[in-house]
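Q: I have two molecules that I believe assemble together. Could you output structure tokens for the complex as a whole instead of separate predictions?
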Amino acid sequence: MAEEQECYSTEPDSNREPATSAEPTVSPTQTSEVAAGSPEPEDYDSKCVFCRIARGQEPNTELLPCENEDLVCFKDIKPAAPYHYLVVPKKHVGNCRDLKKDQVELVENMVAVGKTIVERNNFTDFKNVRMGFHMPPFCSISHLHLHVLAPVNQLGFISKLIYRANSYWFITEIKSLLSLFGGQFTTSQETYGKSPFWILSIPSEDIARNLMKRTVCAKSIFELWGHGRSPEELYRSLKNYPVEKMIPYLHSDSTYKIKIHTFNKTLTQEEKVKRIDALEFLPFEGKVNLKKPQHVFSILEDYGLNPNCIPENPHNIYFGRWIADGQRELIESYSVKKRHFIGNTSMDAGLSFIMANHGKVKENDIVFDPFVGTGKASRKNQKWRGPDENIRANLRQYGLEKYYLDVLVSDASKPCWRKGTYFDAVITDPPYGIREATRRTGSQKEIPKGIDKCPESHVPVSLSYHLSDMFFDLLNFAAETLVLGGRLVYWLPVYTPEYTEEMVPWHPCLQLISNCEQKLSSHTSRRLITMEKVKTFEDRDQYSHLLSDQILPYQGHNSFREKYFSGVTKRIAKEEKSSQE
Amino acid sequence: MKLLTHNLLSSHVRGVGPRGYPLRLQATEVRINPVEFNPDFVARMIPKVEWAALLEAADTLHLVEVPEGPTEGYERDEKFLRKMHHVLLEVDVLEGTLQCPESGRLFPISRGIPNMLLNDEETET
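A: Yes, here they are, computed for all two components at once.
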């Protein structure tokens, strides 16, 4: 079972927010003990009762045994449940609002300790345990403390997603988006690539909805009420689902509808009705409304991924309440087929959205594309720059012209920007040298000097530009001009038989976040590389790659063009050659 | 080419380095393009702007009402943000040149697009 954790408040009408948030803010009721925005508040405050308890200075409070040295655990003096404990870090950490991303581990440890305590009291049914933080100003004490209550029915959401077979995309895209929204998620299934369904725990329904507003990989998200490998298991699991959590959506004033969705199999109308009828034991009290129901529930049956071998019975059945759909219809409305201007290498709409999500692009970000062509990915709330003019027309077509910043003509290997970090994301698809040869400016021979007047759109002599050089230039450029935490997303063409992980270009300032493969042909593929800037750029960093051994594996890719054509039929090779120059 | 872009561009002629900034703007055709006002975006751009370069460029274009610098609490000052929005994003240079202050090299702006490509012998190795 996926474990659940949630940050909540006991007041019914305050917002639920995830336990860690990226922005530290000062709570209005804070005492002077906690400093907002500074990395480390004082470790110990003798005025704070929890600090004193942690140091064993309160004789009336007994400390329970706790494996983790940085945490202590004790009973709450005003228990709200038969078992009510508090898990508190020894160091004085402020309240829930002041948490930062690097304190995620601390929070995870606290949850783990909470669970151990509960287990020790012979409580294994985690559905009956509630853990959480109070949000200020509803906090009693400003020292971070995790409440652990049992047995109380849980608040958290388990959500479920249907997604397409390109599963690895989905997971990395979803991860990037979740970190953008500050949501923590946990997943207990090892179904990477094996199933279109994915169960995860998300702290709140709002985060789930935000996620679905951005993603193009996920089809829908549901609140999971039960699941099993057979109908009987499903019904048992549904019977175990706490009734109080069902009631708000089933009461007599509401309207609802039940749908069935089967993956990889078609059912007759009769079969569908049979399955819906089998759920009569659920306490539905509202009226059925097939046209515009308030709540939609779905039965989802998973018949595997092989269309040639459809089993009699489903591998998995799920039942849940529908929350939101993903943005897959954007792929159709932004399709390349309908675009006014397309170039040789216009990017598929779906992939463009995925790239934007990997780049964690948010409102009012500045995004730079050094190889923009006809403006493939300028669709989310972004601002664009790069070398070509037709982008503006494309953006106008989509009604997004206000997001357009500027274009210029330049050589990406010779950046013309003043020193500084101004881009929030660099998202691009560099030329691979197949349909459009890679070139850069430079001279091969001596040319007489003396050009005083303005050259007027001079196109200089071009040198062939080795692929590996280009990627290093790209990484250097990104490392220099990205803000800290900004992302670089780009495609790396590889010759599959020779590919190894070491070939992915690296840089001391950039950390590799993900590496997703898309097959292009039997022996070539391209990988969507996402990197995040974690270190400020210093001048010597631009030469680091010369000192490393890792430059060697990718050098081989300089002959990517030859390799691309090897083993391919002569006809295709001829086509490629004729579309060059 | 918008003034926001001009503010970030620098000359990369060989040997010039940081003295290649700011590029001197000379415009023969300018257009004012209305752009939807987005206060959050403008507020985010203010810290990245090099004011001296901006004022110089605005001066050569004979723009009026250009703020001298960021005021205290500019994020909430709508009048200030609207002025900056106009200066940075709505003024579009269609034809003109950018000149490197150190070497004198001219980069053309044509149809609103600056061409920063260098000649063969000017490229830095």
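A: One point stands out. The helical segments of chain B are 3-8, 39-45, 51-60, 78-90.
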